[in-house]
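ARCHIVE CARD
Drawer: 12
Card no.: 0347
Subject: one protein chain, sequence and derived structure
Cross-reference: see card 0346
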Amino acid sequence: MRRPSQVLAFALAASLSLGSCSLIRSDANSRNPLIAEQAQRVNDLQRQVDDQNRLVDTEKAKEKALKYQLKSAKQELKARKQQAKSGY
């Protein structure tokens, strides 16, 4: 679960990136080739960051599922040990 400060930071970053996207888009169409090139680089890097964030979120979900499976397997092992001690 995310802490309120993480949610706030995420919301702030998202709003800032949305505002800057239109500026970067217009910069990519600039008549100045240096500005257009740098704006394209910024767009490419932003896309890479967004892709990486999606991958991280996916891996975190996988980790959470694995931890749940591990916890369940440990509980089942404990139950089987108890059952073996009881002679069943």
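Annotation on reverse: Residues 33-86 form the longest helix (54 residues). The radius of gyration is 24 Å.
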